[in-house]
Amino acid sequence: MARWTASRHFSYGYGRVEVLSGFINALFLIVIAMFIFLEALERLYDPPDVHTDKLLFVAVAGLLVNLFGMYAFHGGHGHSHGGGHGHSHGGGHGHSHSSSDGGDHGHSHGGNANMQGVFLHVLADTLGSVFVIASTLLIQNFGWQWVDPLCSLILSLLILGSVIPLLKSSSSVLLQSIPDGLDESSYERISNEIRAIDGVLDFSDFHCWQLKAGTNYCSIHIQAHPQSNEQLLRHQVQQLLLKRHQLKQITVQVEKENALLLKSSNKFQQQNPNENSTSFHLKIEN
After folding, report:
1. Which domain, by its residues, includes 163?
2. Statement: residue 239 has pLDDT above 60
3. I want to staple 152 with a disulfide (CB 3.0 to 4.6 A). Which of 40, 164, 218, 233 is the partner?
4. CA of 166: how far to CAs of 119, 120, 267, in Å?
5. Each residue of 44-100: pLDDT tens digit?
6. Where a domain ends, among 151, 175, 199?
7. Pair 209, 178: CB distance under 8 Å
8. Dihedral of alpha carbons 26, 71, 211, 197, sign
């Protein structure tokens, strides 16, 4: 489903289905881990008798199946390839879109959130089988009934520790946080570099967000000098963000100062329609 093409209702495509699935998987694993944790505390306080007649055979069989599952799902990480397109409009203002070339193949740090969630499910089952084997052997040889709830307690903590990074990364993408590697200091550096470009007076509406892991979007509104070259200015801003800061899918809107002044003047006249009208009253007395 994540590979479905974009539609009129979903103009960005369905790439975030992977992120949403990873987020749901993370929540589900946290609920399971908390349930195991609470039950383990109760069983640790009052250890029940554990019957281990066929438990070892079942645990070993489950471990083999889960190891195969881990091997199968471990390769489920994401690669991202960028396309390239662009268009621009002349006149008082314009905008263009640019995306990075697919030649420099990128490896997304977040990977496929959905596959990561599935892998964590299999990992939790694998660890569960390992702990069942260990607790079964200890109970059979030493009669330590408290080992079973202790292993469950450790398992729940391991599940929580492994799933929290997935929950943080997937929720960060869903909340449209800034891309990885772009912090406040990076933003200040980018701001100074953009203002240093010849013809740039100022900029506003600078937004960067992640559509999914490894796919970053950026939009910016440039206020330019009236004599500046719009095409060159857009190209310079795009290259700065693409090459030096690894941002992709960039939309740059350029608006010249005279167009801004005209727009402000029209807005003022709409708000104050009587401001520029002059009335003369002539009173004739006999």
Report:
1. 1-72+113-175
2. yes
3. 40
4. 11, 9, 48
5. 888 777 777 778 888 888 889 888 877 776 654 443 333 333 444 444 444 455 554
6. 175
7. yes
8. positive
